[in-house]
Design a protein that fits this description.
The chain has 12 helices and 15 strands. Helices cover 40% and strands 21% of the residues. It folds into 3 domains: 75 residues, Arc Repressor Mutant, subunit A (Orthogonal Bundle), CATH 1.10.10; 131 residues, 2-Layer Sandwich (Nucleotidyltransferase, domain 5); 134 residues, Nucleotidyltransferase, domain 5 (2-Layer Sandwich). The chain is of the alpha/beta class.
């Protein structure tokens, strides 16, 4: 006999399977959902009714005639009118908040100067801003589904710990617990909260709100004060054993090179980070090193697409052009084709959008251990 927990998990798996099918194939009917998913028609009917009642799905107001002599069917789609996802980026100098629909359309947004970089102060400022935004959601009768928080550092999402954020000067900070406590004190409702690295989150903004599997594997390179990469591989965010995968800013590009904020010498950040780019000839040199790093990532992951984002790419357009030239030169030398390279879809909001996408990413994959148990 199955336990209640087993049945609840099975229900969540089936529910997420239907949502992912409809996201990939809009306008599916209940009958076609049953055929594609392998679930019984009665199971699909019950789950669809629940997903409609909880505002995950919407159905057309009138049935649509089916091909041939079949009965008219009612198309189903993701409901983008009710549920919203909140994403928050804590950067070195700013706090950026967005509220977006389930398809990534922005409903609310704000960016504030970070007044104090200490974890406790940053947490309080973020919570106050999040509550102010939540009040606007209430006024518009929107339903907050969850909150994602990201920042520039190595994060163990399972434990909710910031392992190392050199540019914020944080190390081994149990930040998720602080965030949840601050949200409760500020007055936010008890929704799932997730914590992740900013580049990892930004990768999800491209993947979850983009074309999904057609761009898997996908790597997002975030160039700002620091440099990081987020990797989507086999439909999952790849974060490594302890959550530090993608810390490309601290890969060594030059033995005995310049001293980095992490304490090592010759890290990529010392050539590609904002401080290095501000130096004379810094952009040309940084572009070449960025191209080398892109070539290395291509050799390791063989991605379909490399996405370049972050403040450096916006303020120094030459950085990306030099990097792409360098990447293509290496590819030609080896007789290979370089992966597609493009700019971030959401510009400077990529990380905050990705933090919102993180909520959806975890909800749609219930077998992945989450920072908090999901509800509804």
């Amino acid at each position: 006999m199955k336990s209640t927990g087993d049945l609840q998990l099975l229900k969540r798996i089936n529910r997420s399977a239907l949502l992912r099918l409809i996201r990939s194939h809009p306008d599916l009917s209940r009958a076609r959902l049953a055929a594609h998913s392998g679930l019984t028609k009665s199971t699909v009917s019950a789950l669809v009714r629940e997903l409609i009642d909880t505002h995950w799905l919407s159905e057309a107001s009138a049935p649509v005639a089916a091909p041939g002599l079949g009965r008219p069917s009612t198309p189903l789609n993701i409901n983008c009118d009710k549920r919203v996802l909140m994403g928050i980026e804590i950067a070195v100098e700013t706090v950026c908040l967005v509220c977006v629909t389930l398809d990534g359309s922005i409903r609310l947004e704000t960016t504030l100067a970070l007044t104090d970089r200490s974890p406790a102060s940053a947490c309080r400022q973020m919570a106050d801003a999040a509550f102010a935004m939540y009040r606007q959601l209430e006024a518009n009768n929107w339903l907050l589904t969850g909150v994602g928080v990201c920042l520039p550092g190595a994060v163990n999402e399972d434990l909710g710990i910031v392992l190392l954020a050199p540019n914020l000067r944080w190390r081994d900070v149990a930040f998720l617990e602080m965030v949840c406590d601050a949200f409760q004190k500020a007055g936010l409702p008890p929704v799932p909260v997730h914590l992740q690295n900013d580049a990892d989150a930004a990768a999800l903004s491209e993947y979850e709100f983009g074309s999904h599997a057609s761009e898997d594997p996908l790597i997002f390179i975030n160039c700002d004060v620091g440099v990081g990469a987020g990797v989507v591989l086999n439909d999952r965010l790849y974060t490594g054993n302890a959550g530090t995968a993608g810390e490309v800013g601290h890969t060594i590009l030059q033995v005995d090179g310049p001293l980095c904020t992490c304490g090592r010498n010759g890290c990529a950040e010392t050539f590609i980070g904002m401080r290095a780019l501000a130096q004379p000839t810094g952009v040309q040199r940084g572009g070449r090193y960025l191209g080398i790093m892109m070539q290395n990532l291509d050799a390791i992951f063989n991605p379909r697409v490399l996405v370049l984002g972050g403040r450096s790419c916006v303020e120094y357009p030459e950085l990306t052009s030099v990097a792409q030239d360098t990447l293509h030169t290496y590819a030609r030398q080896a007789g290979l084709v370089a992966p597609q390279v493009r700019a971030a879809r959401y510009g400077l909001q990529a990380a905050a959008m990705g933090a919102a996408a993180l909520v959806l990413h975890r909800y749609l994959r219930p077998l992945i251990r989450n920072s908090q148990e999901l509800i509804n």
